[in-house]
Amino acid sequence: MKKQPSSLKHYSAVDRQKETYISGMSGHLPKIPFDLQKLEHKAKASMSKEAFAYIAGGAGTDGTIRENRSAFSKWKIVPRMLRDVSVRDTSIELFGDQLPFPLLLSPVGVLELAHKQADLAVAKAAAKTGIPMIFSNQASFPMEQTAAVMGNSPRWFQLYWSKSNDLVASLVKRAEAAGCSAITVTLDTTLLGWRVQDLDLAYLPFLRGKGIAQYTSDPVFNKLLDEPDNAEPIERKLTLDTIANAIELIRSYPGGFFNNLKTKRPLKAVRQFISIYSRPSLTWNDLAFLREQTSLPIILKGILHPEDAKLAIDYGVDGIIVSNHGGRQVDGSISSIEALPEIIKEVDGKIPVLLDSGIRSGADMFKAIALGAKAVCIGRPFCYGLAINGEEGVAEVIKNFYSDFELTMGLTGCKSIEEIQEAKLVRDRLPR
What we know:
Largest sheet: 8 strands, parallel
Number of strands: 13
């Protein structure tokens, strides 16, 4: 088991409260709001309308986003009293990594929409706090660059299974070489969800060359670009906006402005990405190919049905992330926390189960773990911290989640993760 350095090792919620209140005596208010609604509001003011819509928006009417939140309120914590909680241990072990508390940073694509340092800023904050970062397949920086700023801190890689198995194999091998300790296959995005906020703005960042750094840095993808271009052409009217977007694409693409202008490689890369990005034909049988490519743990992200959890075990995967993609894919989907108990029952301790989508507080974390989750993942909250104050903003959000969670543990009479797993939750009683 690898032991990771962490600035949270000797940190506590009491420390967090003290430093905040003492700073307030000098007139210094927090740059990163503790209130998650205020955090989102402040981040919105720091971002373009297109960027905020892409990160904050959901599918359709945003019904699943709302359900992700409201479903947590249906579970109530029953605190216990007169227990010695003067020392609280929040640490867990997960796939060989010792973590300071049960939190991971979900894969979020196109982080350059929030901050120019994007994945690099998030990686540095994750390394400082000892929290695993799941590298996005749709990153703004190649995984090798991101890994280089993390030292020995844990990281995973998110895989979007493209139409090219050669590209899948290449990405996985690169992830291994970059020190990733697990491969997370996102299952729920073989087609792009009906995201009305993006559609209203007619904005998809990939068409502007954003969020495709894992592809443009990949030898297999670049080999595909050297082949005859059979990708479907992108028909666009010539306007000032078209020209401005083309210049932005050429400047951001690796290789130099004038070389890119001459070769037209950036536009070819975008067309190739669009044609190869997702694979709707993916089935359970395809997992055997991935298992042949790596000895790393394989985690399936996007499981919501207990029968799919059973199939995951049958097909030999190593873990599950219960997730509805933060409400971005299916409008009206079951919430992640509602799906969790039945999946935990079906898995019966055979493999770790994590929870993603809707986590907004330490109490949410506590509820998920009490219902059987090994750990939880957050996405939008750290993106908002990134938008407001870069690396430090992300670190502050992590510290806030840690402090809230640790304090919730103590106030409910739990001094360890094991005691949370035995804690009592009750469902809201139906009105008579």
